[in-house]
């Protein structure tokens, strides 16, 4: 018999996509910090593996990957996704989002993203939110799946996530305040 236990908290990571950073980032960055605490942000980097968001967000789209200082309980993922969806809608113009916020949790074993779309490999959480097992850490590197989004399957993203995983590992070894 397995004995249920609360898992270690995860590193909240949010991927932010936009073609118009000046139009929203200072305000939205401050809202993210107010809601989830201080964070580190990557530089902007190209999002060019797909044109899926171009009609809605414009082009060229770039991404920032942000990781929050405070580790969070994994069962907050649905709440976080619902909150980020509300922020996207609040800043929408003419029925179109100006940016896309994709939250997920990084742990030593995996990267799980939140989504509102069902698919065969996704696990339902609640309130229309699903958990997408995007990558797993195995034998010292990230392993992707046939369903992993191309941008997350690329080496540039995996390199960034490896650095965040090391940061997460270091945070776990220090007492949280």
UniProtKB/TrEMBL annotation:
It comes from the Bacteria. This is DUF4416 family protein.
């Amino acid at each position: 018999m397995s004995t249920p236990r609360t898992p270690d908290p995860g590193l909240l990571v949010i991927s932010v996509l936009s073609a118009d950073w000046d139009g929203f980032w200072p305000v939205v960055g401050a809202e993210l910090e107010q809601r989830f605490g201080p964070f580190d942000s990557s530089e902007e980097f190209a999002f060019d593996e797909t044109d899926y968001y171009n009609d809605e967000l414009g082009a060229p789209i770039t991404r920032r990957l942000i990781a929050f200082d405070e580790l969070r309980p994994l069962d907050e993922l649905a709440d976080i996704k619902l909150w980020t969806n509300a922020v996207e809608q609040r800043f929408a113009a003419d029925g179109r989002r100006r940016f896309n916020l994709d939250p997920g949790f990084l742990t030593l074993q995996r990267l799980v993203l939140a989504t509102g779309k069902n698919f065969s490999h996704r696990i339902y959480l609640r309130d229309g939110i699903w958990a997408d097992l995007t990558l797993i850490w195995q034998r010292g590197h990230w392993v992707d799946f046939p369903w992993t989004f191309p941008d997350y399957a690329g080496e540039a993203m995996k390199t960034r996530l490896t650095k965040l995983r090391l940061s997460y590992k270091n945070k776990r070894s220090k007492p949280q305040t």
